[in-house]
Specification:
Blueprint (H helix, E strand, L loop, with lengths): L2 E7 L3 H16 L6 E8 L3 H11 L3 E3 L2 H6 L5 E4 L6 H10 L3 E4 L7 H14 L3 E3 L7 H11 L6 E9 L16 H4 L3 H16 L3 E9 L4 E3 L19 E3 L5 E8 L4 E7 L8 E8 L2 E6 L5 E6 L10 E4 L36 H13 L6 H18 L9 H10 L1
Parallel strand pairs: 1-2, 1-4, 2-3, 4-5, 5-6, 7-12
Antiparallel strand pairs: 7-13, 8-11, 9-10, 11-12, 13-14, 14-15, 15-16
Helix pairs in contact: 4-5, 10-11
Bound molecules: nicotinamide-adenine-dinucleotide.
Length: about 400
Amino acid sequence: MRKLNVAMIGGGFMGKAHSLAYAGMPMFFWPAPAVPYRKTVVDVTEELAREAAARYGFEGYSSNWRQAVEDPAIDIIDIVTPNDMHADIAIAAARAGKHVISEKPLARTAEEAKLMLDAVNHAGVKHMVAFNYRRTPAVALAKKYIEDGLIGRILNFRGTYLQDWSADPNSPLSWRFRKKIAGSGALGDIGTHVIDFARYLVGDISEVMATTSTWIKERPVQSGGLDKLGTVKSSGDTVKEAVDVDDEVSTLLRFESGAVGSIEATRNAWGRNNFLTFEIHGDQGSLFFNYERRDELQVSFASDPEDRRGYRTVYTGPAHPYGGALWPIPALGIGIRRDQNYRMPRLYFFDRKRYRGFTEFLRRLPHCRDYRCDSGLRGKRQLDPLQLAPDGRRKNHANDERRCISRR
Ligand SMILES: NC(=O)c1ccc[n+]([C@@H]2O[C@H](COP(=O)([O-])OP(=O)(O)OC[C@H]3O[C@@H](n4cnc5c(N)ncnc54)[C@H](O)[C@@H]3O)[C@@H](O)[C@H]2O)c1
């Protein structure tokens, strides 16, 4: 099977997600058109790069992205750095004949993005931007319903991306709050995903009216380049500097098709975590999606009987887009995706429950070799009597087992 050597530039949050996708892709998309091989990871220091290689399963590492771009063994350059590096790396990679994957936002400005697009087109290499969310099965299903005419002519698209990770003013001034690095704030960081939904599902936008706000005007300066996304707070006496990007954007839109709509994005919405949603109204029905419930598409059709009017839930599974590659039962989680886009399959596997289970197993391994088996046995002992004696009167051993576990 063809192997494609990947050099991933940046070993932070998205570096982890992309690494998971590379590792998991052939397990899901099989037979795979090609298998991505984690050849080199690059970060700003040797130490960070070495750690990323060990953690994310890369064969080698480097602190020099130009070296990776020039390496003849590399097929794909995957850019997961802060936004200010996207253009330089993508253009150099295209010139070296490498295929390019870039995280979003593609660039800090439209001019920069145009240079990148010109470079990859000129070099004739494959390229993609990581608008991963559109490959979520429920989102792709919404697209299919729209194309099949199930909700008729689209009248309105209402999209939001609401988060609260930086709503605390003590959440530090990471690169995401510096215009020179990020280009823009909530608009480029999260609003871009909703704009991608709008374009994917409804079409190109012809008119826009928008307002942006910066509610938290200064933040404590953080040490280190990695954005910890609000998980680490600075104390009140840390030196502060000005925020020069938006932290909220609201827009009104008109699409080329004539449909209207709105998009809102903010990182100040207490109580909202990854509230990436759209509601689409057509003249024959409506669709609603919320990424926090990513296996679900809410649907309501004008043809529904009057006494059953209202949204109902379709749980995505094998019958739906990408479903055949994922799990055989609906609502088992998508992993994903999230790194998605099968231009190059990019599902991120965020099935936290399963990962937690494995981690716990490994942690306990030296002390308790039968960690999983004892709970399996416990369950079996509870069930067997029910199977053997429909009257349920047989002795249940669950308490004996519980004592045994608590002694460990
Ligand atoms: N598609 C999505 O859902 C999604 C989600 C989060 C972030 N992103 C995007 O991914 C990109 C990275 O974001 P992140 O959250 O992973 O950031 P991060 O701060 O967690 O990680 C960035 C990494 O890049 C490294 N880096 C910085 N400059 C570098 C250089 N010159 N050479 C090599 N490495 C360098 C940093 O040391 C760090 O390890 C951004 O463009 C961001 O907008 C996309």
